[in-house]
Every structure is written in structure tokens, then in C-alpha cells.
Amino acid sequence: MIVAMARLGVIGKNGNLPWAGKLRADMDHFKKVTMNKTVVMGRKTFDSIPARFKPLPERENVILTRDSNYSQPDCLVLHHRDEVLRLAELRDEVFIIGGAEIYRLMMPYTSRLIVTHLFSLIEGDTFFPPMPGNWNAETLFNQEVDEKNFFPFSVVEYTRD
Ligand SMILES: NC(=O)c1ccc[n+]([C@@H]2O[C@H](COP(=O)([O-])OP(=O)(O)OC[C@H]3O[C@@H](n4cnc5c(N)ncnc54)[C@H](OP(=O)(O)O)[C@@H]3O)[C@@H](O)[C@H]2O)c1
Fold first, then answer.
1. What does the domain layout of the chain look like in residue ranges?
2. Which atom in ligand 1 lies closest to the alpha carbon of residue 20?
3. CB-defined site of ligand 1, < 6 Å
4. Which tens digit of pLDDT belongs to each residue from 6-64?
């Protein structure tokens, strides 16, 4: 999984990232980590990506929906959690990229989480689910505020104990 969250686990607001366009270093980090991988997202998260960025380039884009008539050009559409698990067995690595419903659905099967922790309290309506179990945490890097990053954050990798 890869996610960015503010304090209290806020990950979204009004169908979007509350910090959209304000965290360049996190966008670059997301791109670097997911490049050439499979990315799995909920239909609402796919909807939230600006048209010019989708499907996310140079990644296998997978969308989960219950709508059996749904299709998107150059995307793989799946309808059940078990189909995601089967795909994960066939691929080197699969990244769950949100949103909240899909994080919750896939949490029990996740071995590694890369979390951007924004230190700020930011208003939102969508929250990261609990992470049951024991995890080891390693800080990968820290970002201070600058002209392209409006909030300070730390990127932490969690692996199952
Ligand atoms: N901060 C971050 O890192 C981050 C990352 C991603 C997203 N977000 C934010 O999170 C919010 C969106 O999250 P969300 O929880 O509302 O939506 P979501 O998880 O992106 O998508 C939910 C949709 O996924 C499909 N779905 C859910 N469970 C399913 C299942 N068991 N089988 C098949 N399909 C299933 C359904 O699609 P249908 O309705 O089509 O059936 C459902 O409406 C936005 O604000 C977005 O910006 C934040």
C-alpha cells in the first residue's frame, strides 16, 4: 500500500486529496515508488485523477468496481477482492493506492505500507483504516516546507513484524 495522510488519518476531502497540487515532493515520491508496477485503486479514486494524468502512465492501472458494465481505456477492471489477490500472485509487486474503501478491503493481505505522514491537522471526510497487527517502522525521508511543498511530512515504511 501507498498512502498520504494528515493527522487523525485524513486522506481525502470532497473526492479529492485535501493537499492536491501542494505537495510536489510527495507526488514525485509516489511516482518513483509505483513506476513500472501494478497500481490498484477504487473507482472513486480513479475518478479523482485529473484526465490528463490517467491512466497513470507507465503503470498497469487496475480499477475495482461493482459495476459489471464499467470500462476505461487501457485499464484492467476487476470486481472482487479475490481477483486482486490472484493478480498479486502473478505480479512481482502490486500497490494498493486507495481510497479508503480499498485500503480497508486489502489491509489484511498487505505486507508493506509506505505512508507519507503530514504533520498538519487538515480537514477531511475520508480516513485511512486501522492497521491491525504489529508493524516495524522505518523513516525513509523527511520533507520540510518550501515553495513546492506547503506542509512538512515524513515518509515511513511499515513492514509486518
Ligand atoms: N491520501 C491518499 O493517499 C489517497 C489515495 C487515494 C485516494 N484518496 C482519496 O480517497 C477518497 C476516495 O476514497 P473512497 O473510499 O471514497 O473511494 P475508493 O476506495 O477510491 O473507491 C470506492 C469504490 O470502489 C469500489 N469498491 C469498493 N469495494 C469494492 C469491492 N469489495 N469490490 C468491488 N469494488 C469495490 C466501488 O466502486 P463502484 O461504486 O463503481 O461500484 C466503490 O464505490 C478521495 O477523496 C481520494 O482523493 C486519498
1. 2-160
2. 47
3. 3-5, 11-12, 15-17, 41-45, 48, 64-67, 79-81, 97-102, 105, 126
4. 999 999 999 999 999 999 999 999 999 999 999 999 999 999 999 999 999 999 999 99
